[in-house]
Amino acid sequence: MLPPPELKARVLSRIRALPSPARREANLRRRIFVACGLLIPLLAFVAVGGARPGPRPSLLMLETGAGALVLAASSLWVVLGGGRMLGRSRSALLSVVAFWPVSLFLWKLACSATALSSGAMLVWPTRPGLNCFGLTLLLGSWPLFALALTRRRSDPTHPLSLGAALGVSAGSYAALLVDMWCPVGYPWHVLLGHVVPILLIGLVGMAVGYFGLALRQDDE
């Protein structure tokens, strides 16, 4: 559905108000924010030990990591808008929120189930998922902040959906790193430690969307 003419006029007026050099500087800042949003969690991931295959085969780690990488990269492409003036539609953003965490959960379980000899699906009483829960939240918080800065005061139509999708995207990137760190594939552990934090970061993203992403009258 096309936005109302007055809405397009408001957005276009804001764009025209910026001279070309300012727009170039803004695009450069966005790239820097995205790069920092990806780099800082990566450095933190290395600081806590980096990739740890553990008892699982290295091939299993690569399989689960490849799926998590595809989901993280595709979610980032969706939420950043692909160069569209008004960003993605609400339905596209909500698809990230609804399907990406579920897809990550199912992919992790499917890979672990096909490698039964690795013991990845066994219950680990000492690893219920709390460490992964905290690490995913920690690693996902900074990308959410950085991605929000790239879209600050830019969404006139669906800032809550955008914020939630930004949060899920940031959480998906964090889950990719945590998957490299954690060898456990037991369903309850994956749900608590790897998926629930993504959803929580998405909820935080909704608040970020309301307070930081919405295009308001006083911004014009």
The class by helix and strand makeup works out as mainly alpha
**Number of helix segments?**
7
Order of helices and strands: HHHHHHH
Indicate the low-confidence ranges by residue numbers.
Answer: none
What best-fitting shape do the alpha-carbon axes yield?
elongated
Helix percentage: over 70%
Summarize the helices and strands and which ones pair or pack.
Blueprint: H1 5-17, H2 20-47, H3 58-79, H4 90-113, H5 130-150, H6 159-181, H7 187-213
Helix pairs in contact: 2-5, 2-6, 3-4, 3-6, 4-6, 4-7, 5-6, 5-7, 6-7
Question: What do you see in this structure?
Answer:
- The protein is an all-alpha fold and 220 residues long.
- It has helices at residues 5-17, 20-47, 58-79, 90-113, 130-150, 159-181, 187-213.
- Helix 2 runs antiparallel to helix 5, helix 2 runs parallel beside helix 6 and helix 3 (58-79) packs antiparallel against helix 6 (159-181).
- The longest helix has 28 residues, at 20-47.
Q: Any descriptors?
A:
elongated, 7 helices, 0% strand, 220 residues, mainly alpha
Short description:
This protein has 7 helices and no strands.
